Amino acid sequence: KDTAAALAIAKQSMEAKADKVGFERVNPLRMYGAFLAQSRDLDSGLVFLFEALTLSEADTAGIAVEMTQLEIGKSYLAHGKYAEALEWCKRAQPRLESLPFHTSTEDLCECLYESNRGLGNTTEALKYLEKMRELETNKNTAQMTRQLDMISFDKRLVEDSLAHEVELSEEQRSQDLLRNGLIGGGVIFLLVAGGLYSRTRFMKRTNDV
């Protein structure tokens, strides 16, 4: 049921992009073809994948061709056709392996591992198994680095916020001291003025007597 629903959504997306060109057309074609070929009908799915491959050849700068070749290999692999899977994954290998890191690189290694294992090429299969482990380790390290960077950023944010609060508190305290000083000075002035006024009145009364 879930597969049928997902397949229907992928088909709807592909049909909605029927009048598009370039990547906008290739991507939904590849996605639908791969889903159909790997989950249900290999031959019908391959029709869409090979159409996507033909359109991808215009994209010389990107990796659309290699990603489509990889999906063709994965489709053959899903149906136990190891020789065909190995052939198509190897076509995608040079370009995808040159990337620093890409999710397709993991899929490539898995396809090469499973294909070689299915064909009984144990040594080659183990080589790609080790590569898969290496990629997983690198991915985990990258994720940990990002998490540590986020923690460091959050820490700096908190420190800056606290420093700002302290700065505001110091400024507020200075303003309070100044205000209190002015108030105190005013009170003293009033007391002195009041005292002088009272003394003046007292002296005037004395002189009048």
Shape: elongated
Number of strands: 0
- pLDDT below 50 for ≥5 consecutive residues: which ranges? none
Q: How would you sum up the major sheet?
A: none
Would you list the SSEs in sequence order as H and E? HHHHHHH
Helix content: over 70%
Distance between the termini: 117 Å
Residue fraction in strands: under 5%
* Helix-strand category: mainly alpha
User: From the alpha-carbon coordinates, what is the Rg to the nearest angstrom?
Assistant: 39 Å
Averaged pLDDT: 79
The DSSP helix count reads 7
Brief overview:
This protein is mainly α. It is built from 7 helices and no strands.
Keywords:
single chain, 209 residues, mainly alpha, elongated
Question: Explain this structure to me?
Answer:
Helix content is 87%, strand content 0%. With 209 residues, the protein is an all-alpha fold.
Topology:
Blueprint: H1 2-16, H2 23-39, H3 42-56, H4 64-78, H5 82-97, H6 103-119, H7 122-208
Helix pairs in contact: 1-2, 2-3, 2-4, 3-4, 4-5, 4-6, 5-6, 6-7
